[in-house]
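Duplicate of earlier report; Probable farnesyl diphosphate synthase input re-posted below.
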Amino acid sequence: MMPSTPAFTTRLSEAARTVEASLEALLSDKAAPGEIARPARLMAAMRHAALGGGKRLRPFLTIEAARLLGAEGQGPLRAGCAVELLHCYSLVHDDLPSMDDDDLRRGRPTVHKAYDEATAILVGDALQTLAFEVLADPATDTDPAIRSDLVLGLARASGLGGMVGGQLLDLSAEGRYGPAEMGEADVRLLQMMKTGAILTFSVEAGAILGRADSAARQSLVEYGRALGAAFQVADDILDREASAEALGKRTGKDQEKGKATLVDLLGMEGARRECRQLVEKAHASLERFGVGADTLREAVRFVVERQV
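Output:
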């Protein structure tokens, strides 16, 4: 596969800077209308969790999917920030001692290490609710039906039938609730829910804001699903090949816990072949959009090729 073009990496970096600035504004100490106060410790810990790291892939996908359909400006940016806030909440809770018990995230101490476990739980709660507040705000879109669609989509992607349910399957895969034997179908289901659902919604949110018709929206959902699956397989490969210093987080966790991944089930070369097939699938789903979808095509290649 060809490496990412300079134009793509510049576009991704520019979007990351814009998202970072918007997140900083959303996480300011100043209380918003209707709020009573924003406790200083909570806000500092929320900023620790959400600012200063990451490529902001999820908001980038929202922004680019919306742009493909002619929607730009504050709406896609805010929706992308909402998805990123939700994602950051999931990382904070995933790192807790009762979950993965990690000390490092994006090269920095995890929230429960930098602050404490109780604060980390509250940070996750606050980031999650802020995500839905941002989507429900008329500043994201003046049409209440669009805002409702966004809220519903994020709730389903992040809830019991998506990310949260996937996290429970992930804990089960560690043998916490009895013997855990995972076949290929089990691993694919877990990954589709825990990681893939939010990535898919990141793309679908752009389709919603761009007023996509049902066929175009379905094509973008299929693209998001292929990208989400490719992301997880590539992540499993990186977990085996990259160092903790390069990734900014502990590696080899699944092996330590005896938890199967597609790398285990397919082998390293099989996993790489799977990535290539998923890239092809993602590209095929964008055929209807022509050259206008080239940035999204590069995005899925970037997901597979990334080194950190």
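Residues 6-305 form a domain with the Farnesyl Diphosphate Synthase fold (CATH 1.10.600.10).

Merging into the original ticket.
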